Input
Amino acid sequence: PLSVLSEDTKNNGKTLLDWNADPKNKFRLFPSLEEGLGNNLLNRYHPKIEPKSEAVMYFDDDGPFFSDLAMSDAGMELWRRNSDAQVGCFPRNVRMTSERMRGAQWAATDGSVT
Output
């Protein structure tokens, strides 16, 4: 919950690593294939997961890494203003150069994007 986020950013690392200290936060596995979803890394953001907390802050382990201020303060403020939507950035460089990727893009957008 938002209440565990500290106003003092020096404790953010400890807070993030101490996520399992609250017995109400049960570890849950989401079997995406059994739920009819394809094998896709983006399933971690799928609404079918039905997260039990107000907000989930996720950091990719290979960056890019932004400042504490950008991640905790600005990121959470952006979410507070748009709490009905997923907010953040997608740092990957995705190039639609292969025929397979262009086909996937076409299928995902019903052909509305070239």
Q: What stands out?
A: Residues 1-6 have pLDDT under 50 and may be disordered. Residues 68-81 form the longest helix (14 residues). The helical segments are 12-17, 68-81, 99-108. Residues 2-108 form one domain.
